[in-house]
Design a protein that fits this description.
Layout lengths: L1 H21 L11 E10 L3 H4 E8 L5 E5 L4 E9 L4 E10 L9 H7 L3 E13 L3 E5 L4 E5 L4 H7 L2 E10 L6
Antiparallel strand pairs: 1-4, 1-6, 2-3, 2-5, 5-9, 6-7, 6-8
Amino acid sequence: MKIMKKGLQWTVLLIMVCLAVACSDDDGIERPDWTKVTYNLDLGTGWLQLYDVTIEYLTADGQARTVTLTEDKWSEEDKVDGQYNRFKYRVTAKAKRTTFDTSDPAQKALLATDKDLTYTYEYYYYEKETSAHTFKPEEMGQVVKAGEIEKYVAEHPSITLVDHQITVGQKNE
């Protein structure tokens, strides 16, 4: 009984120490003084068959970059010393063609199977004033059935997949 009482006392003491440490003041911790941004994009397999996909983004130090995709997956990470507070991530898709010649075997084959036009994207940024932020919505887009591809592309010759501009310290969308 005496051993159980001692064990209980030690357990209570251990819990109190853990709570005291967990509730300590973190304000004394200095955040690193650098800016880091990471962009990711994962396209369904149909996008690059039907569209030219372009990404415009800002590096961690605010340099504008533009990339035209040649693969379904893209990622970019950049880190610089110091503070930067503007980020941009825009992805657009422009149809390679809005009409199809079904007498052309290659174009006919392109229309013969469903096209996966789903996509996911995310971005992360860290800067000293507000720390780390992540944005990752659910999968978007759709699978377009084989018989509806030509109509879909004609009705959607240009699509904005992602459009985010962030200025730290202001309300952003």
